[in-house]
Amino acid sequence: TMTKKIAMSCAILASLMFQGCTNTVKYDDTPASKTVQKEVDADTISNNATAMLDAMLLDPEVQKATKSSRPKLAVFGLINFTYDKLDLAAINGQLMNELNKANRFRFSDQEDMSAESEKWKDSLYQLFEDPASGQSLATAVAADYLLVGEISNVIRTQPKQKKVFYRLSLKLLDQSNGETIWREQRELLKSEKNIVYGI
Questions:
Q1: How many angstroms separate the CA atoms of 53 and 182, rounded?
Q2: Band of pLDDT at residue 20, cut at 50, 70 and 90
Q3: Which among 4, 9, 102, 156 is most buried, taking Cβ atoms within 10 Å?
Q4: 23-59 core/surface letters (b: 16 or more CB in 10 A; e: else)
Q5: Which residues contact 84 (CB under 8 A, 6 or more apart)?
Q6: Residue 152: closest CA among 133, 167, 165
Q7: What pTM, to 2 d.p., does this model score?
Q8: Given this model, what pLDDT does residue 12 score?
């Protein structure tokens, strides 16, 4: 069934992992300087991604593109650029469910999408950052638009404190010209810790 194909596709996409990198920071090991972990679970990420998707559907450019027809959309979903184990299958599955309910797009064939996505497993950063790469993927699956996003770590240091955020991004790319017609980014505080000095 289509639901099973979508679930299978999301599972394949979720398995495409890319490892990020962090900076080097020295920490004070005293009890008063322990890391404060924040509650950023899969539901929190999924809820924020869904809210971003809702904002995309309300965007004037997107509404214009879907006003008189239902263009074909290739959904790559979120890419994990962190070392953390995140349930991207569930998060990307929720995005697909929301898009299905909105009924504003048709979708690229899921088997074609899975096959083409597999080709990008070693070039995920390029796929997300390079418009020509996204355009190439959309063309390969005969899509008018590509929806792709990322989850990455953002580290901010102050003289006595380090904060780590999840950066959550989604963007919609136009296959015809490679331009991004919509993009949104959010940051979710993941942890904070007192430091002695940063490098």
A1: 10
A2: very low
A3: 9
A4: eeeeeeeeeeeeeeebebeeeebbebbeebbeebeee
A5: none
A6: 167
A7: 0.79
A8: 46
The two three-digit tokens of residue 102, written as one number: 């909105």
Report residue 75: phi and psi, to 5°. Answer: -105, 105
Mean pLDDT across 179-183: 95
Provide the CB-side half-sphere exposure for 97 (13 A, CA). 12
d(CA 166, CA 152): 6
What phi and psi values does residue 63 have, to the nearest 5 degrees? -65, -40
Length of the chain: 199
Distance CA 17, CA 33 (A): 32
CB 37 within 8 A of CB 191: yes
| Pair 117, 108: CB distance under 8 Å | no
The interaxial angle of helices 2-14 and 110-118, nearest 10 deg, is 10
Instruction: Give the number of other CB atoms < 10 A from CB of residue 60.
Output: 9
Spatial distance between the Cα atoms of 196 and 33, rounded to a whole number of angstroms:
10
Angle at 193 between CA 188 and CA 198, to 5 degrees: 105
